[in-house]
C-alpha cells in the first residue's frame, strides 16, 4: 500500500467527524529591482507578490478527551495537542506534539519514530522550515504577550489532533521536463492544463523557479496556525480572480488587518531566519505576508533578541534545534516590532507580469557572497560607485513605475489608448516625445518610455557587475533573451529577477494579449523558455482562502477525495 493510499484511507475514516477546515495561502515573489542591494538599509527593492501561492489547510480531526485538558495550568494536569503534517507533493508525513508542562512551559517534539526527527528510524528526516514555523506559531499562541492569545491557547488545548496539509502551486517548481515527456509545448496553456499540486518526482533533482517557496510555506503555515486557533483574523480571499483584492474580516478595519499581518510577518521572519541559520534581507517573507511592495529591510538586531532567547532555551537553531522547551517569557518579551518599511503597490489593469522558466537553477548564496566580497574589497572605490549608481537607478525605476500606475488610475481613457498603442507597436519604435501615441495619452507614453530607459540603465549596471565579478547576474545568454523580449510589442521592460543568473527572466507588459505574443517570439527565437501561468497578485499577501478554486482543491485533498495527482504520477507520465 502506498503512502498516498494510506493517507487517503485515513482521511476518509476521519472525515465524518472533522471540524471546519481553515485554508490559508501566501504568494510567491519576483524581485524586480534591488537584487543584492536589498540586503542592506536604506536600499530598497520592488517585489511583486504573484498568483502562485503556497496553501496550508488546518483541520481539527480529534478533540481533547476531557474538559480538564482545555483548562490545564499546572504541571500536574498538562495537555498535549498532536499535529500530523502532510506534504503530499513530497510524499511525506511528519508528526509533532505540543505539550503543556504547566507553569508556563511547553514542550515541542517529533511524535513519530524514535522522536528525535533525524530520519534514521524510517520516518522523514528533519524539515527545519516546517518544524520551526510550527513551533514558533504555537509558541506565540501559548507564550505571546497579546491578550488575544489566552483564548487562542484555550482553543488549542481543546484540540486533540490537528491535520495540516501543505501544497504549493505548480509554478513553484519547473515543469519543463514533465511537459517534454508528455510531448507538450513550453507554453502557459500547457502548464495550466496540468492537475493542480502535482506530486514531484523525487528520483530527480528538484528544480525550482525562484519564487520563494520556503518563505511562502513558512508564512502560510504560521498564519494557518494563528488563524485556526483564533489568535488573529486574516483578510479573506472570496474570488478566484487574482486582480480582486482580499476583503477584511468582519468587523476589522485597516489597522486591525495590518496588526494581524505584522504578527505573522514577525514570526515568519524569525522562523525563516532560524531555519536557514542566518538573518537575510527578508524580502521574500515580507512579500508572502504583504504582497507586492517597495521594501526596505529590517535591522537584523530586531530579531537577535528572540533568536538568542530561543537559543539559550535550546530551541533556536537550524536542523532539529527547534525541538525543546518553550517558556512563556520568550515570546512575551519579544514582539512584532520589526522596522522594515513596506509600501504596498499593485499593477494597474491591463499591465501584467510575465515570468519565463529557463530551466537552469542558480546558486544564489554563492553569488551573493562573491558580489559582496567584490563590493567590500575594492580599495579604489570603483565597486562602491557602481553599487551606489545601481541603487539610484533602481530608485528611479520604482518611482516612475509608481507614477505610471497613478496616471493609469487618474486617466483611464488615456491609459487605455496607451495600452492599445503598445500592443500594436514595440516601444523601441515610438517617437521620443510620445507624440505618435497622441492626445491625452502622450504624457503616459513619456512615462512608459522613461521607465523603459531607466530599467535599461539598471541592466547596464548589472552587466558591469557581471563583468567585474565573473558572477553571472545578467550573463550574455540572458542578455540575448531579454533584448529579444524587449523588442516585442507591449513590453515595457524585461530583466533577470532577484539575484539574476540563468534560471528565469521576467517582463512587465501592457495588453492582455502580449503574453501570447511573447510566447510566440520565444518559440520562434529558439530560446527554450517556458512561460509560467502566474501574474502579479492584487490580493495582497497572506490571507484566509474562502472560495477560490485552489482552496477548494486543498480542502478536498485534506478530505481524501483525490483532487491531488496521485503520488508518483509525474514519473509515470
UniProtKB/TrEMBL annotation:
SUPFAM superfamilies in the record: Ribosomal protein S5 domain 2-like (SSF54211)
Gene3D superfamilies per the UniProt record, alphabetical: 3.30.230.10, GHMP kinase, C-terminal domain (3.30.70.890)
Keywords: ATP-binding, Kinase, Lipid biosynthesis, Lipid metabolism, Nucleotide-binding, Steroid biosynthesis, Steroid metabolism, Transferase
Domain GHMP kinase C-terminal: 458-524
One GO CC annotation: peroxisome
Pathway stated in the Swiss-Prot or TrEMBL entry: Isoprenoid biosynthesis; isopentenyl diphosphate biosynthesis via mevalonate pathway; isopentenyl diphosphate from (R)-mevalonate: step 2/3
Organism per entry: Thecamonas trahens ATCC 50062
Protein name: phosphomevalonate kinase
GO MF annotation list: ATP binding; phosphomevalonate kinase activity
EC number assigned by the record: 2.7.4.2
Family: Belongs to the GHMP kinase family. Mevalonate kinase subfamily.
PANTHER family: PHOSPHOMEVALONATE KINASE (PTHR31814:SF2), PTHR31814
GO process terms (BP): farnesyl diphosphate biosynthetic process, mevalonate pathway; isopentenyl diphosphate biosynthetic process, mevalonate pathway; steroid biosynthetic process
Keyword Nucleotide-binding: yes
Amino acid at each position: 500500500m502506498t503512502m498516498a493510499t494510506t493517507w487517503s484511507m485515513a482521511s476518509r475514516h476521519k472525515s465524518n467527524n472533522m471540524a471546519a477546515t481553515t485554508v490559508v495561502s501566501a504568494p510567491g515573489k519576483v524581485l524586480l529591482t534591488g537584487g543584492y542591494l536589498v540586503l542592506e538599509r536604506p536600499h530598497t527593492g520592488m517585489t511583486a507578490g504573484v498568483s502562485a501561492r503556497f496553501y496550508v489547510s488546518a483541520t481539527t480531526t480529534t478533540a481533547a478527551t476531557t474538559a480538564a485538558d482545555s483548562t490545564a495550568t499546572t504541571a500536574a494536569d498538562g495537555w498535549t495537542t498532536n499535529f500530523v503534517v502532510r506534504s503530499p507533493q513530497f510524499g511525506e508525513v511528519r508528526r509533532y506534539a505540543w505539550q503543556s508542562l504547566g507553569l508556563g512551559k511547553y514542550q515541542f517534539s517529533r511524535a513519530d519514530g524514535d522522536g528525535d526527527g533525524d530520519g534514521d528510524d524510517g520516518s522523514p528526516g528533519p524539515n527545519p522550515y516546517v518544524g520551526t514555523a510550527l513551533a514558533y506559531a504555537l509558541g506565540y499562541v501559548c507564550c505571546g504577550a497579546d491578550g488575544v492569545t489566552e483564548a487562542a491557547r484555550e482553543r488549542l488545548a481543546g484540540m486533540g489532533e490537528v491535520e495540516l496539509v501543505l501544497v504549493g502551486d505548480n509554478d513553484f517548481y519547473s515543469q519543463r521536463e514533465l511537459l517534454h515527456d508528455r510531448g507538450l509545448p513550453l507554453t502557459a496553456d500547457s502548464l495550466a492544463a496540468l492537475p493542480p499540486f502535482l506530486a514531484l518526482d523525487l528520483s530527480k533533482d528538484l528544480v525550482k523557479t525562484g519564487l520563494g517557496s520556503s518563505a511562502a510555506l513558512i508564512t502560510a503555515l504560521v498564519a494557518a496556525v494563528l488563524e485556526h486557533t483564533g489568535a488573529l483574523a486574516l483578510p479573506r480571499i472570496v474570488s478566484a480572480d487574482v486582480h480582486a483584492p482580499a476583503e477584511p474580516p468582519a468587523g476589522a478595519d485597516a489597522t486591525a488587518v495590518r496588526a494581524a499581518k505584522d504578527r505573522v510577518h514577525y514570526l515568519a521572519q524569525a522562523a525563516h531566519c532560524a531555519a536557514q541559520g542566518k538573518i537575510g534581507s527578508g524580502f521574500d517573507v515580507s512579500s508572502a505576508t504583504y504582497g507586492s511592495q517597495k521594501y526596505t529591510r529590517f535591522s537584523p538586531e530586531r530579531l537577535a533578541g528572540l533568536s538568542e532567547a530561543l537559543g539559550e532555551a535550546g530551541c533556536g537553531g537550524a536542523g532539529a534545534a527547534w525541538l525543546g522547551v518553550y517558556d512563556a517569557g520568550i515570546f512575551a518579551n519579544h514582539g512584532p516590532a520589526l522596522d522594515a518599511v513596506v509600501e504596498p503597490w499593485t499593477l494597474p489593469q491591463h499591465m501584467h507580469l510575465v515570468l519565463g522558466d529557463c530551466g537552469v537553477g542558480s546558486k544564489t548564496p554563492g553569488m551573493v557572497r562573491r558580489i559582496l566580497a567584490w563590493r567590500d574589497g575594492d580599495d579604489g572605490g570603483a565597486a562602491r560607485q557602481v553599487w551606489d549608481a545601481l541603487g539610484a537607478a533602481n530608485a528611479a525605476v520604482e518611482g516612475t513605475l509608481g507614477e505610471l500606475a497613478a496616471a493609469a488610475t487618474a486617466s483611464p481613457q488615456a491609459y487605455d489608448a496607451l495600452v492599445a498603442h503598445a500592443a500594436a507597436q514595440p516601444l523601441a519604435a515610438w517617437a521620443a516625445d510620445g507624440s505618435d501615441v497622441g492626445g491625452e495619452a502622450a504624457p503616459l507614453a513619456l512615462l512608459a518610455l522613461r521607465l523603459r530607459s531607466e530599467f535599461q540603465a539598471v541592466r547596464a549596471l548589472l552587466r558591469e557587475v557581471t563583468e567585474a565579478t565573473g558572477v553571472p547576474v545578467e550573463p550574455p545568454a540572458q542578455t540575448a533573451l531579454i533584448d529579444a523580449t524587449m523588442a516585442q510589442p507591449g513590453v515595457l521592460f524585461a530583466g533577470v529577477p532577484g539575484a539574476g543568473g540563468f534560471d528565469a527572466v521576467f517582463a512587465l507588459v501592457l495588453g492582455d494579449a502580449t503574453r501570447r505574443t511573447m510566447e510566440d517570439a520565444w518559440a520562434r527565437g529558439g530560446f527554450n523558455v517556458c512561460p509560467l501561468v502566474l501574474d502579479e497578485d492584487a490580493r495582497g499577501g497572506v490571507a484566509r482562502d474562502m472560495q477560490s478554486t485552489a482552496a477548494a482543491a486543498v480542502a478536498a485533498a485534506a478530505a481524501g477525495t483525490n483532487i491531488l495527482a496521485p503520488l508518483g504520477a509525474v514519473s509515470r507520465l
